[in-house]
Input
Amino acid sequence: MAVCMIHCEPIDGKLSYCKFAGKTADTKPTGDWIATGSEYFDIQKAKTYYYDSAGSSGSEWVTPSSS
Output
């Protein structure tokens, strides 16, 4: 299965807030056009990841830490 873009909404001239869905092994999208906070839903694990364009390893998909 390929990653499916569910929704993408421009928020300024460069960035877009997007929602994606796909399988665990699918390569999650990256790029300087994806806004921090965009979402990727893993349909196999029923888990949502959030895009962080300024992550510790550069741009990355992360899960929220539980408190």
Strands lie at 4-10, 16-22, 39-42, 47-55, 58-62. The CA atoms of residues 53 and 59 lie 4 Å apart. Residues 4-62 form one domain. The mean pLDDT is 90.
